[in-house]
What we know:
- By secondary structure, the chain is an alpha+beta fold.
- Helices cover 51% and strands 18% of the residues.
- It has a single domain (2-161), classed as Alpha-Beta Plaits (2-Layer Sandwich), CATH 3.30.70.
- α2 (28-35) packs across α3 and α3 packs antiparallel against α4 (78-94).
- It is elongated, with a radius of gyration of 15 Å.
Amino acid sequence: MGTLASEVQRSRRLRRAFAVLLADVDRFKQYNDTHGHLAGDAALVKIAEVFRKTTRQVDCVARYGGEEFVVMLLEANLATATLVAERIRARVAEQDLGEGSLTLSIGVAEYPDGGDTPEELIATADAAMYKAKSAGRNQVVVAGTSEERPQPQEKKRRKREA
């Protein structure tokens, strides 16, 4: 969160937007249970490589929990972030994982509309990601207006339900 907090401060000072992607590997627990933890770990490594190859060197990609990834796209607007997210989603779906295939549900949020703090941005991207999951998985959903920002307790509830 430190890097994200620094970028919020920098973007606030320079009055520039940036975007956050929050991606969850769809049905990863089922994949892990079926194919084993070694195959699951290998799949996560391949997925991480897709993120690395699809983003710029200035962007920041990090694993965020068990099967979630967060991406900070510097000086990127929603249109650019959505294109990057779609590329990542499509490339992961095309991966030959040996044991089957996996897909991603990705939520996209933009600073400052998606939140003024790192926590708000993550919560907004998380809410969009859950909309992608609810709509059938393997898709990208862009966060709506600031009125749709989830409250912190809503984020905790969603994590418990996942």
